[in-house]
Amino acid sequence: MRHRLLTVLTLAGTACAPRAEGPVSPAAATPPPASALADHTEQMWAWFPGEYSNYEQVTEQKYAKQEPYEHLHQIFMPVEVPALGARVLFVQQHMVGNPTPYRVRIYTLQPDPARGAVRLDIYKPTDPDVLTNLHLEPERAASLNPAIDLQLAEGCSVWWTPSDAGFVGQTDDGTCRVTSARSGKTMVFSDTLLLTEERLHIQDVAHDTDGNLLFGHPEGDPHKLRKLSWYTGWSVVRAGGPNYDREAPQWQVHKGLHMHSEGTRIPLVDADGSPIPYAVELARLTRSGSNTHLLKVTLYDSETDKSVAYAWTDPNAARIGMNLGWAQVGLTREPGTPHYGFDSEETSTVVRELAGHLQGTLSSSAQAARDDDFRSIQLQTCEVAAPGLGTTVLYVEQAVETTLDEPYRQRLYVLEEVDDQTVRSNIYTLADPASFVGLCTRSERRFVHPAEAVLKEGCAVDMVRNKGVFQGETAPQSCPSALRGASFASVAVTVSASGLDSLDRGWDRQGNQVWGSKDGPYTFRRTTSPTPPTTATATAPSPERSEETQ
């Protein structure tokens, strides 16, 4: 499966940004006069601040049955850090559905007369927590010490010049180089962007030092983000919907709707906060075939996920609403932009519940103490940022407890909702597993590129929730395995808040078990705190567990 890689300005082990529309000129042939360059800087400074989303791009790709780009929400907010100059932006970037940002940065803008361009410098935090959610507490910016809290991305400056489409930004060829902390390999980034009054297009590619493409779309479309607006409002719906009781009609009132213009959908509730079977969605779209831009409000039946009715107006309208007789919706645009109140939409409840059960440190030591047929194994799991793979991605490391620095299995679990009670766990191996050892105990930002992961086709596990317990197994004879003469592997898993039971087995073509436990599942229970890696040099034999499945 081909994954479209997340594209944004970046630094140190992550990407920088993508390739824009319109002519590109890293440095003007004839530098503009100082006054024009100052005007360019001020224009960009006026345009950049805001919240951006590529909702329409993702929606159009889905309707066209194309593999969609990642659905992104990005914040660019002016902050005051006097040591960095007068034009400083805080940047936070999310995948929609994940409350944890995958990247936080500081950008600075200033004219560069020698280059005849506006220079954008990128700063990475030494500790991501210093910047995370700064837009919700902007006063924290005053306490930043750039010498301690920030690190300049040397060679990764973006140079901006005007074009017919807006301002085009580009890095210098070959100068933005990042050495992976895990693999030690050098990645060379090449980034191109387009900024207009309401849009930000981003495209990036990365090559190794031999010129081989590592990721990115050198010929493809950029991520196309648009600045959003916020609306507040209300809804009222008759109890019973269109078939309400005419003899005793009752209104279900939902006050305080707060939604932005790029595809927000809010489930409705009554005055007591109890859910009703309808939802309201607000979205800016382009009408197919006519290139007409519009703002659309839609009432959905939550049970069927089908539109009940919609209304549309000019995308810059101050108000929008509808009246169906039995249902009414009214929304008013908030004055001023941007809003900066973004709090990322949570991933589905069932996915977050399973992810919470899996994360942490688990051990089979209690089982091993009772039964010599089982070894004492540590299972350590933590969430990583892997936007090119999915919204919720877990790194899993298993090791014999006497040699924790020599794990015998390392995997990525990419969790996705199947329905409100089922989560599919897609299993990935790692191209360079040695560089990930001990990842869950490191303080560094955990970010995984799609090029570092390989999907194990046929090995997905559908986990079904029942009273707080998740159970699942691989499809029959679907997960290939060559371990110890096996033809395929099977996995049966039970997960709860207290731990995980896992039965992994290998089978030959005749259906005979050739590896794995014959005495029931391994039982992993949560420990009070993570166990640090050991420095033991003795090598214990790998347990009778699959190297090929999870």
Walkthrough of the structure:
It is a single chain. This protein is mainly beta and 550 residues long. It has helices spanning 34-47, 55-63, 146-149, 349-358, 365-370, and strands at 50-53, 72-79, 88-95, 103-112, 117-125, 150-152, 158-162, 167-170, 176-179, 186-195, 199-207, 213-216, 223-227, 230-238, 251-260, 262-269, 275-287, 292-301, 306-313, 319-323, 327-333, 360-363, 377-384, 392-400, 409-419, 422-430, 453-455, 461-466, 469-473, 479-480, 488-496, 499-507, 513-516, 522-526. A 10-stranded antiparallel beta barrel has the order 1-2-3-4-5-7-8-10-11-13. It has a 10-stranded antiparallel β-barrel with strand order 22-23-24-25-26-28-29-31-32-34. The protein is globular, with a radius of gyration of 26 Å.
Q: What number of domains? A: 3
N-to-C terminal Cα separation, in Å? Answer: 18 Å
Rounded to an integer, what's the Rg over CA atoms?
26 Å
Percent of residues in helices = under 10%
CATH topology of the largest domain: Lipocalin
CATH architectural designation of the largest domain: Beta Barrel
Mean pLDDT: 84
